[in-house]
From TrEMBL:
Keywords: Cytoplasm, Methyltransferase, S-adenosyl-L-methionine, Transferase, tRNA processing. It comes from Chryseobacterium defluvii. S-adenosyl-L-methionine binds at G112, I132, G133, D134, Y135, V136, L137. It is found in: Cytoplasm. Belongs to the RNA methyltransferase TrmD family. GO terms for cellular component: cytosol. It catalyses: guanosine(37) in tRNA + S-adenosyl-L-methionine = N(1)-methylguanosine(37) in tRNA + S-adenosyl-L-homocysteine + H(+). Its EC number is 2.1.1.228. It comes from the Bacteria. This is tRNA (guanine-N(1)-)-methyltransferase.
Amino acid sequence: MRIDIISVLPELMESPFKTSILKRAMDKGLAEVHFHHLRDWSTNKHRQIDDEPYGGGAGMVMMVEPLDKCISELKSQRNYDEVIYLTPDGITLNQKIANTLSIKNNLIFLCGHYKGIDQRVRDLHITKEISIGDYVLTGGELAACVLADSVIRLIPGVLNDEQSALTDSFQDDLLSPPIYTRPENYKGLEVPKILLSGNFAKIEEWRHEEAVRITREKRPDLL
Ligand code: ADE
């Protein structure tokens, strides 16, 4: 999978892709992420990419021309499955969206700033608008990292067996059951006996019951 990220602050997104599982995905050639500095597509000598809104009002608007030029150039090089705009007014990211995106080949992520982008960029290029939650960040960069992480870890071969995505919370609309590791007893708090029984059918049954119980308790909306 190739992800092209367009931003005015690409440096904000460097370390997540240079660390741990995402780095390994890159090293294995399973994912590649390319950053594009929007100011490189500015049409004036001040490298301006934003301007005042028509009709007045607070905040600046990201101009249509640099964004159109940047996205058009990328599109002339390969076919993109989606051009995604990270914005608080998009659809809220969930595991299902991450699953769907994880089987795509080429994605563009556009990080918004200021008041947002000129509507004509949306009309011309954007195929999906995604929010990572009902709160407002200073820009789309951290949201782009969250989206990329949620998608890349699902690409076959990125996680090993122990990290398997199949047992994630949300993968079957349930939260994860409690998990334990050594010691068996810590300050009087015991690991549930069933987990020490070696009866894997019973353990699976217990885990499912616990997952349902915890989901009912914390996130009844998922059931
Ligand atoms: N940009 C600013 N806030 C955002 C959010 N919650 N999700 C996605 N992009 C954003």
